[in-house]
Amino acid sequence: MTVKEHMFGGGIMFVRDYIRKGKKVGVRFGKRYQDPLTGAWKTATVTAKKDNRHTRNLAEVALEKKIQKKQSEITGKFNLHRDMTLGQLYDIYIKEKSITWRINTKKAYLTSYKKFFQDFSRDIKITKITPLVMMNYFDNLNHDVLEIVKGKAPSKGPAIHTISGAKVYYARISTMFNFAVRKQFLKKNPCREAHIDWPKDNHHIAIEKKYLDEDELVMVLDWYRKNYPVLADVFEWQYLTGLRFGEAIGLQVKNIDTQAKTALICGTVVPGNDRYSDQVKQPITKTDSSYRTIHLSDRAMTIFYKRSKGKKKSDFLFNRKNGKLPVIQSVEGTFKRFRKHHDLDKILTTHTFRHTHVSKLAELGAPLYLIQHDVGHSRSKITQQVYLHVTQKAEQQLADKLNLM
Known about the structure:
Elements: E1 3-8, E2 11-20, E3 23-34, E4 41-48, H1 53-75, H2 86-97, H3 103-119, H4 131-149, H5 163-182, H6 190-193, H7 214-227, H8 229-241, H9 245-249, E5 256-257, E6 262-265, E7 268-271, E8 279-282, E9 292-295, H10 298-308, H11 328-341, H12 350-363, H13 368-375, H14 381-404
Antiparallel strand pairs: 1-2, 2-3, 3-4, 5-6, 6-9, 7-8
């Protein structure tokens, strides 16, 4: 058996006769490398028909690729000539991470990545995405968003209408590059290294605009009882329990324990294939802390008995006469109709009733941790803001009363 050695840039490559069934059928090129975990020496080989300068060059490239692949299976590194593209990174990232995402989370992230790949080709090498590239990209994006906010430009593509929305978009793109760093595809996250000068969000809203006082709540519910009785019960249920809209309409008769007067929050309703008509119950909650059991007031039980009459245990509590659940896009349209008849100086969304629940409990002196359990949020900036605003207001009123004494 003939053995030759050739010195190349990547180390010594040997060549041996390739014997099969006692006959020489070609040559076998090989190269030794160390296992990155054990340090043990291993050998990678490729075959060719002849040993000449051309086949040696081809063998050298093939062996490098083979060794890189074997090492990447152990370390996760992808440093093969630093040729990984954005498309390759995205495909690996989505395959590994998306299986852990909830339905709504997956839809939101995929929408952001759809926009990203409208602006960046899948064929761009990830090493070419520098902090300067990302800084310029988000500076331009922020400029476009501000033009939309000012009404000077129409929104194009997946909607980003506010600086807050741009920050969420940035966080999702950064998450993909964090994955690349963790897998050692990149040394640094170009988003993290970019120095982005974020403009102030002009959509800052005073916290007291986000919840209703008692008179406003009565006015809203009265109008809905006359025009949309199912929604009136949903909104009142949200006020009484602190549930998200999707959690409330996702309640089934079987989720209510009439003996203990409790409700098990074990899922949420999300759009189906047709987001304007199909609704499906996702069998998991928005966050881990959202899976909870809450106690129900007598008024909440009254609504339950009314809505569950004649229904099976698997039926939804707040379905309409046609059996379908309320659709969030249609609900938003009812808010516009309400404003045509009433002058309400408050933000009116499905979250308003949830925030009103927080404000009422804070007014009654309930501790923050108890409210957070009720609304299914271990950490919520809005919940904390509403709570602090109401309690500080109560403290000031008490101080004012003391001044009168």
